[in-house]
Every structure is written in structure tokens, then in C-alpha cells.
Amino acid sequence: RSGEMAKSTQLIDNEVFRAYATYTAIVLMKMKLMSLVTAYYRLTRKAFVNPEDVASFGKGDSAKKYLRTDPDVERVRRGHLNDLENIVPFVGIGLLYALSGPEPSTALLHFRIFTGARILHTFAYLIPLPQPSRALSWAVGYAVTFSMAYKVLKTVLLL
């Protein structure tokens, strides 16, 4: 029901909390997959940052050539860092939002839009798609998180 704070014993039965859990799991797994994409790019581009990572390529100068940065690896890393900067706040604010008693349809819209925006942002970074696709997808996700934070503050502080 809208406007009522959820009780912890009822969370699993709460439609909004189930939606939050679903979409949070999706974006967190997407963020985890970025680690695998980074590893793939490091291996295929043979671009490593730690000496122990290049030990299998030999010793001395023959291995040192693999201690380098690569533009493709750095692009993936920047996408992953952007996930960390945006998904982590979504997880915390989204939980507070889910507990603040929002309308289920409104909450579902927030969660879906954020998830879609983050997935689009990843594709825009990795492909790369022309700007402003990446900037817009970032801004949409940011606005959703801000909207949820505003609802939480409005509910708690009676703004």
C-alpha cells in the first residue's frame, strides 16, 4: 500500500521490495560482468598492470612490454568505474526508497528506467555509440536515483 513503511517481516511479500531486489540484482550482476569484460580485454590486448600478471610471458624485457595501458582496456575500466559510482548509490537509495512506501507502479518505473539506462550506458561505452548517447543514459540513471532520494527525504522529513 502506498504511503506505508514496509515492515521487515513483510519485505519478501512486498511487491516494491521484490521489484527492488530483482532490478538491483540485475544491475549488480551487470557490474560484476564488467570485471570479466575487463579481464577479457586485458588478455586479448596483452595489457597488464602488475608484474606478476606477465610472468608467464617470460622474464625481463620480454615480459615488460606487456606492462602497459591499452585504450580499449581503459575504456572498459572507465565504464566499470562509472558503474561503481552510480550503481552503489542506487542500491542504498533504492532500498530506502523501497521502504518509504512508494506506489508500486511508480517504483517499478524507477527501477526499470535505471536498469535500462545503466545497460544502455554500458553499450554506449563499449561499442562506443556516438555522444550524447552515453551522456544521456548516465543522466537518466542519475535523475532516477535523485528522484528516489527526493521521495525518501520527502517521506522521512515531511518536505
From TrEMBL:
InterPro entries: MAPEG-like_dom_sf (IPR023352), Membr-assoc_MAPEG (IPR001129), MGST1-like (IPR040162)
EC number(s) stated in the UniProt entry for this protein: 2.5.1.18
Function: Conjugation of reduced glutathione to a wide number of exogenous and endogenous hydrophobic electrophiles.
Primary site of residence: endoplasmic reticulum
Family, similarity comment: Belongs to the MAPEG family.
Reaction equations catalysed: RX + glutathione = an S-substituted glutathione + a halide anion + H(+)
Key words, A-Z: Acetylation, Endoplasmic reticulum, Membrane, Mitochondrion, Mitochondrion outer membrane, Transferase, Transmembrane, Transmembrane helix
Keyword Nucleotide-binding: no
Source organism, top-level taxon: Eukaryota
UniProt membrane topology term: Multi-pass membrane protein
Organism ancestry: Eukaryota, Metazoa, Chordata, Craniata, Vertebrata
Gene: Mgst1
Protein name: Microsomal glutathione S-transferase 1
SUPFAM superfamilies in alphabetical order: MAPEG domain-like (SSF161084)
GO molecular function: glutathione transferase activity
Compartments where located: Endoplasmic reticulum membrane; Mitochondrion outer membrane
Subunit structure: Homotrimer; The trimer binds only one molecule of glutathione.
GO CC aspect terms: endoplasmic reticulum membrane; mitochondrial outer membrane
